[in-house]
Structure formats: C-alpha cells, structure tokens
Amino acid sequence: MTLLRLDRLSVRIGAAPVLSEVSLALEPGETLGLVGESGSGKSMTALALMGLLPLGAQAAGRVEFEGQDLLALRERDLCRVRGARIGMIFQEPMTALNPMKTIGAQVAETLTTHGAATRAAALEIARARLDRVGLPADRFGLGLYPHELSGGQRQRVCIALAIALRPALLIADEPTTALDVTTQAQILDLLQALVAEERMALLLITHDLAVVAGRTGRVAVMQAGRLVESGPTEQVFRAPGAAYTSALFAASAHVPRRAPAAQGAPLLEVAQVRRDYVLARPAPLAPHPVLRAVDEVSFTLHRGESLGLVGESGCGKSTLTRAILGLDPVQGGTIRLAGAPVSPAMPRAMRAGMQAVFQDPYGSFDPRWRVERLVAEPFHLLPARPADWRARVAAALAEVGLRPEDARRHIHEFSGGQRQRIAIARALITRPALIVLDEAVSALDVRVRAQVLDLLAALQDSHGLSYLFVSHDLGVVRAITGRVMVMQAGRIVEAGPTDRVLSAPEHPYTRSLLAAAPRLPGRASPGVRPTAP
Amino acid sequence: MIRFLVRRLLALAISLIVASFVVFAVIEVIPGDPAAFMLGLNASPETVAALRETLGLTGSLPARYLSWAGGMLTGDFGISYTYRVPVADLVAGRLAVSLPLALLSLALSTAIALPVGLYAAARRGRAGDAAVMGLTQLGIAVPNFWFAMLLVLVFAVGLRWLPAGGFPGWEAGALPALGALLLPSVALALPQAAILARVLRSALIETLEQDYIRTARAKGLSRSRALTHHALRNALVPVLTILGMQFSFLLAGAIIIENVFYLPGLGRLIFQAITQRDLIVVESVVMILVFAVILVTFATDIAYALVDPRLRRRA
Amino acid sequence: MKTRRMRPGLALGAALSLAALLLALLSLVWTPHDIGALDIAGKLRGPSAAHWLGTDHFGRDVASMLMAGARTSIAVAVVAVGIGMALGVPLGLIAAAGAGGWLDEIIMRGNDLIFAFPSLVIAILITAVFGPSALNAILAIGIFNIPVFARVARGGALGLWTLDYIRAARVAGKGTARISAEHILPNIANLLIVQGTIQFSLGILAEAGLSYVGLGAQPPTASWGRMLAEAQTMVTLAPHVALFPGLAIVLTVLGLNLLGDGLRDALDPRGRGRQA
Asked: In terms of Cα–Cα distance, which of C41, C31, C40, C28 is closest to C62?
C-alpha cells in the first residue's frame, strides 16, 4: 500500500497561490528528495501535509496518508498523526528546541503526548534514542539544556524526538543547511542509517542538489509552486528531463570565465596578525581567560589577484576580515594596504581603497534610504562628494546590470540577487583596489549565484580589482579564486593555488573538508575542475 | 549561580547607597535652615537651636550623612518632630496597612491577568480576543483613584456592602481589616491587571511564533498544550519585568488610594508630614519606598535566573 | 500585497486625541463660561442648557473647567515627554553604541536608579523641598520618563548595530555618532513615536494623580485631578462633578493608547501577514 499520496495539493495564502496541484507518492520505506530554490514551495508542501500551515494559508486537494485524507481530518485527530506516524525536523537547530526545557524532557514529551509511555518510561526511551543519534549518556545527560549543545548536537536532539515513536514517515526540511560541511555530512549519514534501520520513509527537503545525490532513491524538483520533474535520483541526475533541472545542474557547477590574472605588486600584506577576545572570568577574581580567534596569520594579496579564505563557522575568518577592513584593532602583527598600515584610525582616503560586500542581502541596506543614497554612501570617504555623484551612481548601477532609474527606488523593491548587485555597485563607487567579499553569494540561489559570480569575474577583468573571497563554500571558492587559504581554529593550515589545494590537499583538515562536501555524481566534485563545455 | 547572586547583591548595595545620597542631598539642598523651615516664621531662636540639636544638624555634612545612614541601618530613623515618637515605630504601624494593601493588589492583579492573557493569546485575532483586549484598553485608561471613587459610590454608598473608608486596625480581627482593604486593593489592581494581561498576551503571541513551538506541534501537541507547556514559561520573562515594575507602581498608587479611603498607611503619613514640614518622616518614608523598589528589582533578577536555565547555569 | 485596511482603533484613537487637543487649544481663546466666575447660589447644579455639564461647589462651569484642565494635562504631559525624549534617547543611543562597555554600564545603572524613584516619589521629594506646583509635576514625570526612553532607544539600537548595513557604513568611514544619527535614529523612530504616545497617556494619568493628592497644579490653574479631589467630598450629593473629569481622563488616555497601538501596527515594517 502506498504510504503517502499527494493528489493535486494546492495551497494559497489569501488570493496568492503558493502551491499548485502537486501530486506525489511515497511507498513505505522509500526515500524521496524534494529539491527547489527558495520560494519554490517545497517547505510549504511539508507544512501542508503536517497541517501546520501558517495562519491565513489554505490547502486544497488530497493528502492521503496510511489510507486517510489528512486534509479532511479534525485537528484533534491530526495531533494523533503528528509525532506518532509522521515525524519532522526543521532547518534551524539553534531555535528549534525550547530553551527552558531539558533535552530529556523534550524527547520524552513525544512519547508522553501520545500516551505511549509513563513519564519515567518515556525518559528511559528518550535515553535510548539520544544514544542512538550519537549523544551518549556519559557526555550528554538528559538534564542538559539546549544552550549547552552545539548546532549539530541540537539537530541530533531534534532527530531523536522526531523518531522517538518510530514514525512511518520522517520529513527533514533543510536539516543541514544551517550546519558546517563536516557536521552536515554526519547528520545526513545518521538520517540515512536511521531510515534504513527503522524502515521509515524519508522526505528530504533541500535547495542543494548535491545533498540528495546518493542519499535518496527518488528525487522531485519543484519550481514556483509546481512539480517540474520527478524520478529515480540516478536517472534525473544523469539525464534531467526538465529544462529547469538542467539549468539547476549547470548553475551548480558553473565556473565563470576569468582571464588569467597577471601577478601584480603586493596590495594587502598581513603579517603575524593576532586577534584576542577577553572572556568573562570563570570565578570571581580569577584572571580573564583569553580566546585567540586569529593566531599569527600571515599572507600577501597581490594586485589583480583573487584570493579565497575558507573555513567552518567559528574558525576566525570573520574576525580576521573585520581586522583587515580596519573595523577592529589587532593585538599583534601588522596589516598593510598598498604599504600603509590598516587600523580603525586609518585615514578616510585609505579606506576608499578597500570596500566590502557582506552576506545578507536583506540586512545590508538601510531600509529607509533610496538606492542612490545607499550606493553613494562611501563617497563619505572622499574629501567632498563629487558634483557628478548621480552620474557616477548611475554608471555603477549600469556596471552591475541595473538600470539608472533604479537609483530612485527603495531597497525592498529588489530581489536578493539584485540587492547583492547593488552592494557590489556600492563597493565599486570609490574605485577601490581591493574588495572583500564576506560570504557574498552564500545566501543566493544557485542560478542567481552563478550570475553574480559571472559579474564579479567580469568586473575584476575590466577594473583590475583584487578580491579577498571569504566563504565556507568550497565550490564557490573553486569557481572564483586563483589561490586559496584554509583556516582552522584561528590558523591558516594550508595555502596555495586553488586547483592544487582542492585537488591534492596536503593538510588533513583540508582533506576532511573536501571529503565531507556533498557532490553531484558524474560531475565535478568541488575539488576537481569540470571538463569544460 | 553563586557568582550571579554575589554580583546582584553588590549591585543592590550600590543602588541603595547611591539612592541614600540622592535622598539625603535633596533634603540638604533646602534653602536655609531645615530647623527654621520646619518650625515656620514665628519660632524663637532658642526653639530652632534646640531642634537643630535633636535633628543632629550640628555636625559637618559627611558626619550628618553617616549618622543618618548609620541610624537607618540600625533601625533608628530619628524622632518625628510632629508626632514626637520614633519614626521607626510610626512607619512600622503604617506599613501594617500599606504593605498588605500592595500585596493584596499584586495578588489580585496577577490572578486576574493570568487567565485573561492566556485566553486572549489562545484566541488571538478572534472576537473573544478583541473583546477582552478592548476591555483592558479601557482598564488602562481609568485612573485608579477615580475608579476608587466609583467603587465607593456603588459598593459602599449604594449597596452598603463594604465600608467607604477608614481602617479598624488588625486588632479588630482579620476579617474587618481585610474588608476595609478590599475596595482599595480592587481599585489598585484592576488597572494593573489590564496592563499585565496585555503584556502577557503579547509575550505569549511572540513566543508562539518561535521555532520550538513548531517543533512541539510537530510532536503532536495540540495548540493549547503547546501554549501552556512551552509558550507560557518562555513568556514569563517579560511578564516578570512588568510584575517587578508594577510593585513600585502599586506602592505609589497605594499612597494615592489611601487618601481616597482614609487609610492610615504610609501615603497618609507622608502627606501629613509634608503639610506639617516633618522632614525626618518624609526622608525616612521616601527611603523605605525606594528600598522596597530596589529590593523588588533584586527579587525579579533572581526570579529570572530561576526561570531561565541559561542564566542559572552560568558559572 | 499591502492592502489599506481600515483600522478602527487607530481612527478612534486619533479622533479622541485630536478632540482633547482641540478643546485644550480652544480654551486659550474661548470657554463657555469664565472659569474664575464663582456663583455660590448656582452651585452643584446638574447639566442644563446654560451649564452643559453642570456646576461645581463654587458654581463654576464644569465644562469650561474641563477644557482648561485639558490644557494643563496636555501641557504637563507634552513637556514631560519632551524631557524624557531629549535626554533619554541620546543616552540610549550612546549606551547602545558602546554596548558592554563602561559607559553603557553607567548609563544603565543610572537608569535602574531612577526607576527606583517612581514619579510620585520624585514629586514627593521635590514638593517637600520646593512646595507643590505644576512645574514640579512636570519635572517629576519628566525625570521618570528619561530611563524609559533610554531603554527603548538602547533596545532598538542594539538590534540594529548587528546588521550588515551598519558594517557597510563603518566601511564607508562613518563614526559612531554619525551612524547613530543617520542610520540608527531614523530606524528606531517608530519605536520612539509609539513609546511617546504611551508615555504621553501615562503622563496625563500621573498629572491627574499628583494634582489629586495636591502635589500638582495649584489654584487658580484648572486641573482634572484637583477637580476630582474637590469633588470627592460631595460625590454623593452631586455625582456629575466627579463623573465628568474622570470621563475626560479616561477618554483622553484611551484615545492616546489606541493611537499608540494603531501607530505600532501601521508602522510595523514587517507588515502583518506578508511573508509566508
């Protein structure tokens, strides 16, 4: 018997359709990857079948699960299905657990809610489940609170509580998107093993094609609320049927055309830089412990070069970036830009030679300012705002592929990709020699990301720019940089030409990063340059 | 937790010292001689000199502060000029009215606000929520002393269920005494309950939008169970803040309400002292009120730590 | 899609607040009767054609006194909110800009200290020294408003300081003062406006309470609180004398609160129910 059958499932919020006639089937024990870009309706599909749609959203069609239509069930009966027959885990493990309750109580609650066990027995089962998801009793007692665990550990707790009653279907909505690559691989392995062991069906929702590769039996691709393709994963990956799927594959492996950079004079010289944080005293009157976030880092970035800096969250790359931008003081070593020392007190004219593009396309702009004022903000670094500033803003917008009339609009009228283009225009306006790109494309969907990378490559060629490209994503670094540094625990553990480091890594940490990164089968791994079409 | 406690206690002590500076300084800046100020224009120089002696106004400024603050610490607040009894005895007698009044109102307002806030949050956006929130909007706008007058008009003058004012004293038995405090505490509590209910509702609604509520719902918890088992405790932190601030408002409000009901509490005492220029009493009562507020702030901080494990486990 | 939905609360609040303001302004040039005119023979009369809301124990016209009282209430509340904003907002911005530092610590501890002196206690202290007056009421309420605005400004600013556009402004070479003025202040203006209406209504309540216990405006200045204090002894004889000033307070405060809530919803950048 089919476990789950979506029959022309549609969802609308108010008058706007967000899901249009999605039909899917899932057999017991089967694994299905549901892939799509943001806004494609993949998460909405999961929430609709759980009956957890946001207020104001209405579902139509049929969701047949174990023989009954979930959409027709009363709320009280739906509660008996949720958690017991269908378990679900979400994207953001940092906020998915109640900060006021112990992890033991939160796992046990799944059992007590459904009357499956007494409180004492439920805690015992919770213990066993936590052991199973890799949180052994000796280090992870039931009495721990979520804030005492890391993101990956919290996601394990979420998995434990989702599978506590051995549901027939487990829905994982972007379960690893918020995690580092090595943690991501461990969590995906755990999910795969659990599903096989318990004979659960798995619905794995992700924006990343590489995540489903080799992990789910079938894959379904969504675009703008519709299902555009579904089939056995291997077949879809080998020969995608829909043009959209092919476009996604192409964008995932996209490498912008870059002219080989001529090695120029040194531009940014970082020598033995140290950044320390003073922490709270562990006991009254005890000395403040010091956290060394950046430990004796040295490197040189040449004119016209594109240098990558990769590492997982907390490795110190953001702290180092802030020091390079002259936002924070260093506790040791020197940073020089074109020979002059960088510090929070450096002259404005010097800051004009170095600009930045940040990760968040939504938080990067004052929502009250018009685009022209936003783009013109770095003119503050010049002695006076140039008389032709409007013309120069228009020129900068044209360079990043926007229209001059966009200057009069407000930032909320633009999409994420357009916003990053505006951020690049802002960085270009003072004609800097160096642009620091801090996870500048990480928040973008693959197709938009490919376009922005093309833009960055073209701008580098035409303006002779240097890039310091900070990212956690090896694939992106592979595409846009000529040289790369790998950072771990405040130190640069490996550096060299990007091709060499990502194809023949020397340091064990680089190797583990590469091994953990999900890759598309039959295509390039992040470390190997694709045979170019 | 120990570190947290020590830090808080230290902050408490510093607040108290600074507050005592402020109160002492304000009384000290009175233009001219406090003794002459208290006695009025017709007093003889000998009487003024005698009062200066009793007031301890003869020493230097730091010496005067030290003897005043030291006296406060040991429970010696000085002698009231008009009543000619130790201020400590006077205040103790009045506290026996004001404190029960404030506590009774606090209990009442919490008892009313809790179910109202929960109900409104559970039915957010629907008719019941709108109706209850409309009522609380009205409740906030009503001045408590005017509300007190209306209560007297209806329940004391009209229905004759409760006394219109006065206080029989605790010696007359708990029941008559509580009866005399009932209307005043209702008048104090209802506007505060309206505020508290609104804060609780918005705190609950905010927590209901958190990710962990979705996790709880995905476990199979019903909407109402998620509200009581997950949202309520997380919503308690902002509610505690308001509750702590309310105590200071209730104390202040009690001063006014006591005037409506002719209750012999701290409020009556301080106004009589102001009209009779009995500065020692004013100084002492203000200091006691400030002490109470600072103490409640301290208690609120401790309560946070008890509610929130992230604070409790630190250090 | 942002639909322009009718907001009945906002409309009612704006109407009530505006009415109170207009009546107060009108009282500057015209009241139905002279509020100083005593008429002992015609005292404690109920509402009539000549005296719409009746007369008080001196035979003064209650409607006229209410209009003049609105002036006092609004003037006290406006100045008190002004004091709170003018001092509290810069303090809050400074504290947020140096969050975690010693300046922040000093400002926030100072805030806590003022919170320990509720406005009534401040008023009692000031009155004990300088004697009662409307100015003292303004000072007492105004001082208590400072930490309120400092907290709101600091809280709003703290969230903004972590955003990338502030980092971008720093990369553009702007200092903390300039960033606070150009980016932070405009973006917390919503919060401040909403808190302003709340403090305004609390100010009216506080002024009424202070005047009621005799710590506020003194005769001959008309004040709602003192009207109630004077009405208290004859509330059984002539309930209307106590009823109308109370209603005036309730309607004004209600109006301001509805206005504040309505503004908060209308100015909320998240715009209700926009994202899925």
From this structure: C31
Length of chain B: 315
**To the nearest whole angstrom, how far is the Cα of C201 from the nearest Cα of chain A?**
29
- Pair of tokens at residue A390: 């409007």
Closest chain B residue by Cα to residue A145: B309
Strand order in the sheet with A169-173: A86-89, A169-173, A201-206, A31-36, A218-223, A226-232
DSSP string, B113-141: HHHHHHHHHHTTTSHHHHHHHHHHHHHHH
pLDDT tens-place string over residues B133-174: 889 999 989 999 999 989 988 888 788 887 777 788 788 788
Q: Regarding beta strands A218-223 and A226-232, do their DSSP bridges make them parallel or antiparallel, or are they unpaired?
A: antiparallel
Give the Å distances, CA to CA, from A508 to A86, A511, A514: 40, 5, 10
The single-letter code of the amino acid at B312 is R
Q: Which of A215-224, B151-160, C199-208, C260-269 has the lowest mean pLDDT?
A: C260-269
Q: What is d(CA B283, CA B274) in angstroms, rounded to the nearest whole number?
A: 10
DSSP state of B155: I
State how far the Cα of A357 lies from the Cα of A364, in Å rounded to an integer.
8
Subunit contact C165:A365, Cβ cutoff 8 A = yes
pLDDT of residue C274: 31
Nearest-5° Cα angle at A205, A209 to A479 = 25
* Edge-to-edge strand ranges of the sheet holding A332-337: A290-302, A266-278, A332-337, A340-341
List of chain C residues whose C-beta atoms are within 8 Å of the C-beta of residue B301 = none
Report yes or no: C95 and C103 within 8 Å, Cβ to Cβ. yes
Report ipTM for this prediction: 0.84
Percent of chain A with pLDDT over 90: 71
State the Cα–Cα distance between residues B262 and B271, nearest whole angstrom.
Answer: 12
Q: What is the pLDDT of residue B230?
A: 92
Closest CA–CA distance from residue B94 to any residue of chain A (Å): 41
- The distance of C124 to chain B (nearest Cα, Å) reads 8
For residue A496, pLDDT beyond 90: yes
Question: Which residues of chain C are within 8 Å of residue B22 when distances are taken between CB atoms?
Answer: 113, 117
Return the structure tokens found at A318: 């953001």
